[in-house]
């Protein structure tokens, strides 16, 4: 991990179970400022649950989470205020179909941050431009491709000026030819220095953009390291087997 950089996200001994199924079994990790961490692993191994616990959309059973030195798991923390600084992009876009792209992006600025309508729309237009969709500002979600919807969702998160972005398989619902346009936006964010935690099986993105790949299985972190090490010479045979399989698929 880079030395001398602020720790933006800290997770300590995080546990989560659904009934008798332990989804997270004592996860601990830190993500420093400007770091891009990619979480990989089989389905059902707790990657998405970990993201949701970080921003408290899912409450962990035990353990603690800090974002920018604020403990989100402390009951006295104003979670709505803390969550304003955490961008979250889901696989399912979560746009309001009755609002155009511009209004989808400006909504949070007006109702959460209290911006006046003109300032919010100017900011929203700037963020749409940032993801290459300024010309689609007046279009409704039904008039946009999957890739364009996901880029609107990213713009909506960026408009809140988050200090960390969480991506939960942002390209898994997209047709193959649309995946690239979303990954380009994510790569640009990484170049700009955005701190990011990404659940994705896009190995090219992990290889080219991430600082660290974390392999999870059965609710545990099995192995982690630089992309060069993890993709060419991991310590564990299981890591090599899994990453080899998803490399073949992409």
SSE inventory with pairings:
Elements: E1 7-18, E2 21-32, E3 36-40, H1 47-54, E4 62-67, E5 70-71, H2 79-83, E6 86-89, H3 101-111, H4 117-130, H5 146-159, E7 164-168, H6 176-192, E8 195-199, H7 203-209, E9 212-217, E10 220-225, H8 227-232, H9 237-249
Parallel strand pairs: 3-8, 3-9, 6-7, 7-8
Antiparallel strand pairs: 1-2, 1-4, 4-5, 9-10
Helix pairs in contact: 3-4, 3-5, 4-5, 5-6
Our estimate of the beta-strand percent is: 25-35%
Describe the strand arrangement of the main beta sheet, using strand numbers.
Answer: 6-7-8-3-9-10
First-residue to last-residue Cα separation: 27 Å
* Largest sheet features: 6 strands, mixed
Uncertain segments are none
Instruction: Work out the number of β strands.
Output: 10
Radius of gyration, CA atoms, in whole angstroms: 18 Å
Total helical elements = 9
Global morphology: globular
Give me the strand/helix succession.
EEEHEEHEHHHEHEHEEHH
Helix content: 25-40%
Q: Please identify the structural class as seen in this structure.
A: alpha/beta
The overall pLDDT average reads: 93
Detailed description of the structure:
By secondary structure, the chain is α/β, with parallel strands linked by helices. The chain contains 9 helices and 10 strands. β1 and β2 form a beta hairpin. α3 (101-111) packs parallel to α5. It is globular, with a radius of gyration of 18 Å. The mean pLDDT is 93.
Q: What key phrases describe this protein's structure?
A:
alpha/beta; six-stranded mixed β-sheet
Task: State the gist of this model.
The protein is of the alpha/beta class.
